[in-house]
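quick one: S-adenosylmethionine bound model?
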Amino acid sequence: MTAKSNFIDRTVQEYIIEHTVREHPVLAELRIETSQRSNAMMEIGPEQGAFMQLLARAIGARRYLEVGVFTGYSALAMALALPADGRILACDVNEEYTAVARRYWDRAGVSEKIDLRIAPAVETLATTIALNGEPFDMAFIDADKANVDNYYEAALRLVRTGGLILVDNVLWGGAVADSSANDPDTVALRALNAKAGRDERVDVSLVPTCDGILIARKR
Ligand SMILES: C[S@@+](CC[C@H](N)C(=O)[O-])C[C@H]1O[C@@H](n2cnc3c(N)ncnc32)[C@H](O)[C@@H]1O
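yep, here:
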């Protein structure tokens, strides 16, 4: 579904991780367990986790929305970065992946911060919009790419003014910049980048960390 990619030299990436990432021991254990899986590349990299934690702390985030949990690395990184009263709404469809996530969230003592909903994220997001509750400070979109625009639009409704929407894998291994690549996922991500780039509702930046992170700040 997604591919972990990197636009910098591996040695440089290892340098960054070694010198600047303070990975919580439970995050490190989760990364090791997840690395045994054939689809381990779906997990965000440790430097991306550190970047997201920094953003959350920089904006004083308390409420975080995640679309695409897998074995729980990004949600755990964020749970560790949020204050004690921080809350996460986490969306995924897969019980097997998220059973691993729950085990590590328990181990890190953050389970009570995380409300995991097992259902198609479009449904969970529609229900959450309808409930019209407290807005989120930050959202992270990292699930099926066919729905990326639906998730972006839902996040724009759910995040507060000044809040951040992050979309993962927006470079898609570089395919978005290759006009001969026209598979549905590439087309969906390319369209989102083009739309967000001129979207007057947000300030935007595309950071080429890992497989590319689109950061949109709601105006
Ligand atoms: C790239 S992985 C998420 C990686 C995760 N953020 C991490 O840090 O490890 C994508 C996840 O999206 C989930 N997913 C796929 N389609 C979905 C859908 N329609 N609704 C909710 N989750 C979905 C998959 O089950 C998978 O766990």
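The chain has one domain: 10-218.
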